[in-house]
Amino acid sequence: MSIKKIKVSPNIKNLDDIGLLERICSKDDDEAYNEFVDRYYDSVLEQCIIKCKSRNVDLHVGKQIAHEIFERIRKYKSFDKTKLNTQNRRKAILGWLYKFLVRLFYDYHNSQKKEEVQVNSYFDDLVAEAKNIDPEALASKRDLAKDILGKLNKKEKEVVITDLEYKRGQKYLPDDVNESLAERLGVKKDTIRKIRERAIKKIKLALDEINQ
């Protein structure tokens, strides 16, 4: 996507950042949109490039995501100034934009995971420890998984399922996946590790019970 440069009227130029966003979200306004992009694009692109370098992702992906962030703002018109929680408006808006960035990188990793080299997750290793379980003798592997996952609470189950999705492709979850997971669960990123540890203990206990 290329950002079309157009002449912006003084009325638009004089709007503050929140005024621009409210105008963009209330109607289709090319002037307001281009002025907002002009003010924030470089900062958004910088964060996308940093994310690409930290995750060893091609930089063109970051550029595409930077463009997509602004396109989503214009398409979904979801800005709500009452949810900004800081007096520094630029910092607050950048934080709001960063949430789009996290979701889009999450989507990117999700689309790429099937192409990555398969490695064992801790769940695979735990199942391997249950030496007396013969999968051929089980009516359904799904029943076994359902029984084990049924012993986890909602947050533990979400962490385990996310691990199963991503740790087949790499040993650790990408930072943006962790951030998105923490946001969905309403917890801090450090808390994810504690939830995972509790889930592992419950899974081990469930496997021990099956093995008895």
UniProtKB/TrEMBL annotation:
Gene3D superfamilies: 1.10.1740.10. Keywords: DNA-binding, Sigma factor, Transcription, Transcription regulation. GO terms for molecular function: DNA binding; sigma factor activity. One of its GO terms (biological process) is DNA-templated transcription initiation. Transmembrane segments: none annotated. It comes from the Bacteria. Belongs to the sigma-70 factor family. ECF subfamily. This is RNA polymerase sigma factor, sigma-70 family. The lineage of its organism: Bacteria, Pseudomonadati, Bacteroidota, Flavobacteriia, Flavobacteriales.
